[in-house]
Write a structure and sequence with these properties.
alpha/beta; 25 helices; 23 strands; elongated
Length: 933
């Protein structure tokens, strides 16, 4: 316990009394004890001295009587000595040399206490012995004369012949009485001192502690708020100063209190006014919020309307341009038409950028999470923009590290958009040199990978003073760039916000006239299923390859890919060394890979190809040159396979394993023979004459009967009079719009169950949700793409109808959506789920019976991941609930009802999956044969 706390339990009066009395009493007791004890010793010494003064002369005087054996004389001597000191001496006795009583002053009942207990030869001087209230002194008697001692006295000592000894008992009563008197006197003196101290102490308490107590009382009143309390009277010394200080403090506090009260009153008044102002501001903020929400709604409507109004004419421009290309045209007309199409497509890209920026700014961008093949996705994206690099003569290289996983989960479309923006910018601002896309694995966990992508170019670079403005909306490095290269300045800001929304980071380094390096890191989920077909790469082991590529970057990337497959590669970067190898080679090569670069003219190219053709059965030409005539006239006739650079690993391996493949270079424009039309009756609805004519034209090439109407009311009338196999409905129309017309058709017509596809230029996500929630079955955006139109017709006309199971058990449309609308991929994922179900069910049952928490959590986690991509919503929901409970350390036995429900649902999923797979496998195979998928 804290001693300071103990001290505070006692009053100042108590401490003053204790501190004043305790030292006085302690000192008085010590001094009284000292003098009393000292007096005791003095009295005892005096008593011993008196006894010695009596016994020692008697020992000398008794020598004669003891020698003469005269008992009477000796007795008289002893009696006289005792009578002389009768109050002091109680008895005197003489013992002879044999320690026998010789004579005593008078009879003593117990003279044995006077006898010496030790040997007599040890008694050399007077010895003292305390016995009760008496003091016994013994002194030896020696022979001091020449006379002979009696014959029996034969004890000799250094002092002479010992004749005997004399013993005397001294009475200590008087000494004890004196000692008691001294003790009483000392006690009285100490008591008087304590009383005097008490007197002065109480005087001190009265003059010191009472004023201090009064001060404490006054301070307590001041603390309670009684600031008018004061100390009165005259005090001594510092107490008077303390009194004045307390009174001054009380006065100051009173003044401060009055001033504070005034301030409080003023602050209260100000606060009341402030609260009133805040209330007014809250009302204004509420009104401003409502205005902002209304402005946001108007903005969304404006974007939707602008999207519709801009896409509607673009739909007609692009659609009819593509239709016009199908007609007989000479080369200059084809070039004009393609220029019109590219311009309209660029305008459409600008519109999409503005809409994406608006959605990102409003926080309404929704990201998907579907499995996709990383290399295939990036390859497709690069292929779309490689033409721009070829047109400028740039070396475009894609380098994906071998340890980067290919099966990932995420938003493939947004990843493509990020790559497209960065690589497109790099190509745009690079006049010569190269553009390299490098992807590396930054980190990896059990469920996620973080990839880093660098887009490095040798372009104009960015000045340091302009770099801070690069990621701002509608901004570029400077105005001259905007004029020279064009663009809205939205690409990078959209890219940055997409990367940030996907949980990644983006940055860049750049030097003027040296180029730039734009990089971003992106977290993606790890896919549990193989995307696409796996190739038997082991068949390429030890294959001999002659490889020629003069450009350093492309040569390095392709060499690493070939070495990764354990092939035996002969590298060349110069034409002379290549020709030397071809001329001197004895054994043929399994493959010859030749680049189209480095040849002086077409004659040298053709001769080299012919020479290489004699050295291999598979001549592969890597082509990214701009001259299409050289490709058509010289390369294709002399090569087995022509691949466009940059070529992906999968594409290169597939062409090496299974040559020859179809050329991926666009063939010259030829008039295609119309395909056989499907026997279908389709209703097309659009209020815009150009769009209606376009969709009518496109549909007439695909189906036998097309009914085109220009209003929602007319569409409802047609739906009530005849049945259609498919209805294409515009959304925004005067009068009865597409949504209202759809509702009326669903309510009362002959086409209640006919698939209705929305054909609209609306690009806002909320509008799409509204469209799909209004009873329409699908969505076809404007401008209409002929391939997309074919896919929609095929998908909805050949749509499988499953009636033997609940859609919550297995939803094929959801499965297609989760597989990015790739039917073969969706079917493969469904097969893999079906193959894993028996082992999964067995493991769950075993873990349930054994209450094995870790095994149950691991199994449910894997099943949950698989169910996210197979269109099984009920299974996915149950797995999520069970996994969440297990992660909260819920016991397995407590989850038995949910686990049993999951097992029942897996049985239903197995049955439904078997039906879907058996029905769709044949259809997909037939479609692949017919080229529909």
């Amino acid at each position: 316990m804290n001693p300071v706390n103990n001290m505070t339990k006692y009053s100042l009066r108590s401490w003053v009394l204790v501190l004043a009395l305790a030292p006085t009493i302690l000192v008085g007791i010590l001094l009284g004890s000292y003098f009393t004890i000292n007096r005791f010793y003095e009295l005892e010494d005096t008593l011993v001295e008196q006894g010695s003064n009596i016994i020692e002369p008697l020992s000398i005087a008794s020598e004669i009587g003891l020698v003469a054996n005269d008992r009477e004389a000796t007795k008289r001597l002893l009696a006289a000595a005792q009578l002389n000191k009768s109050t002091l001496v109680k008895s005197i006795a003489i013992f002879d040399a044999n320690n026998q009583l010789f004579v005593t002053s008078h009879y003593h009942k117990d003279f044995e206490i006077m006898r010496y207990k030790e040997a007599l030869n040890t008694l050399h001087k007077t010895e003292i012995e305390h016995v009760g209230d008496s003091l016994i002194l013994r002194t030896p008697i020696f022979s001091t004369g020449p006379s002979a001692a009696p014959a029996n006295y034969d004890i000799q000592t250094d002092d002479g012949q010992l004749l005997g000894y004399i013993s005397i008992i001294i009475n200590k009563e008087r000494a004890l009485l004196e000692q008691h008197r001294a003790a009483v006197a000392a006690f009285i003196i100490v008591l008087i001192g304590v009383q005097l101290n008490l007197l002065f102490t109480f005087r001190l308490v009265k003059n010191v502690t009472q004023p201090i107590t009064e001060m404490v009382r006054v301070v307590a009143k001041i603390r309670e708020g009684k600031l008018d309390a004061r100390l009165d009277g005259n005090l001594i010394g510092e107490l008077d100063l303390l009194k004045r200080g307390i009174n001054a403090m009380a006065g100051s506090l009173s003044e401060y209190h009055d001033e504070m009260q005034q301030n409080i009153d003023q602050a209260t008044s100000d606060l009341r006014e402030t609260l009133e102002q805040i209330e007014i501001q809250n009302v204004e903020l509420d009104l401003a919020k409502k205005r902002a929400l209304e402005a946001s709604r108007i903005k969304s409507e404006f974007l939707a309307n602008m999207s519709h109004e801009l896409r509607t004419p673009l739909n007609g421009v692009i659609g009819f341009a593509r239709q016009l290309v199908k007609t007989p045209l000479h080369s200059s007309q084809v070039d004009y038409i393609k220029t019109i199409e590219r311009s309209a497509t660029n305008l459409l890209g600008i519109i999409n950028d503005i809409l994406d920026f608006s959605k990102l700014e409003a926080g309404k961008m929704v990201l998907e999470n579907t499995p996709f093949g990383l290399r295939e996705t990036i390859g497709d994206t690069i292929t779309l923009i490689s033409g721009s690099a070829q047109a400028k003569g740039l070396e475009l290289v894609v380098d994906i590290a071998p340890n980067v996983p290919d099966n990932v989960n995420g938003d493939a479309m947004r990843v493509c958009q990020i790559i497209n923006n960065l690589v497109g910018n790099a190509i745009k601002f690079t006049d010569s040199g190269s553009v390299m896309v490098k992807i590396e694995l930054q980190s990896q966990s059990e469920e996620q990978v973080v990839l880093r992508c660098d887009v490095v170019d040798t372009g104009i670079g960015i000045d340091e003073s302009q770099q801070d403005f690069l990621f701002q909306a509608f901004g570029q490095a400077d105005s001259s760039i905007s004029r020279r290269f064009g663009g809205t300045g939205l690409g990078l800001v959209i890219t940055k916000r997409l990367v940030n929304q996907m949980g990644g980071q983006i940055g860049f380094t750049s030097s003027p006239e040296k180029g730039s390096n734009f990089w971003f890191s992106l977290p993606l989920g790890l896919g549990q299923f193989q995307i696409g077909d796996s190739l038997p790469l082991e068949k390429l082991k030890d294959k001999t390859i002659l490889f020629y590529e003069p450009r350093v970057l492309t040569h390095a990337v392709l060499s690493r890919q070939l070495n990764q497959w354990d092939t035996k590669v002969t590298h060349h970067q110069h034409i002379p060394s290549l020709l030397t190898t071809l001329n001197t080679a004895e054994a043929p090569y399994d493959y010859v890979l030749l680049s189209c670069h480095g040849f002086s003219d077409s004659g040298q190219l053709v001769s080299t190809l012919n020479l290489a053709k004699t050295k291999t059965d598979c001549l592969v030409v890597l082509y990214d040159c701009q001259e299409q005539d050289a490709l058509t006239q010289f390369i294709r006739p002399n090569a087995d396979v022509v691949l466009s650079l940059p070529v992906s690993e999968h594409q290169l391996a597939r062409n090496l394993l299974y040559p020859p493949m179809e050329y991926d270079i666009i063939a010259p424009v030829t008039i295609a023979t119309p395909a056989a039309r499907q026997s279908l009756t389709v209703l097309a609805v659009d209020d815009n004459f150009a769009n209606l004519k376009l969709i009518d034209t496109l549909l007439s090439e695909l189906v036998t009967t097309v009914v085109a109407v220009n209003s929602g009311d007319e569409a409802v009338k047609q739906a009530k009079t005849r049945t259609f196999d498919l209805i294409f409905m515009d959304i925004q129309m005067p009068g009865t719009d597409g949504i209202s017309a759809t509702k009326q058709i669903r309510q009362g017509s002959m086409n209640r169950n006919t698939p209705i596809i929305a054909v609209t230029a609306h690009a806002i996500a909320e509008e799409r949700e509204l469209i799909l929630g209004s009873g329409m079955d699908g969505y076809l955006p404007k401008p209409i793409d002929e391939a997309a139109l074919k896919d929609v017709i095929h998908r909805w006309i050949t749509r499988p109808k499953f009636t033997h199971f609940d859609l919550h058990t297995l939803n094929w449309d959801l499965c297609l959506t989760q597989a990015n609308h790739k039917a073969d991929l969706a079917l493969d994922m469904l097969r893999m789920l079906l193959d894993s179900l028996p082992q999964t069910v067995t493991t769950i049952q075993t873990a349930l019976s054994q209450n094995d928490h870790p095994v149950m959590l691991s199994t449910i986690h894997k099943l949950h991941g698989a169910s996210c991509y197979c269109g099984v919503p009920t299974t996915q929901r149950l797995c999520q609930e069970i996994e969440s409970a297990l992660k909260r350390e819920t016991a397995v036995e407590d989850l038995e009802p949910e686990i049993l429900e999951l097992l029942d649902e897996l049985t239903k999923v197995e049955s439904a999956a078997n039906q879907v797979i058996s029905q769709l496998s044949a259809e997909i195979t037939d479609d692949q044969k017919n080229g529909l998928l």
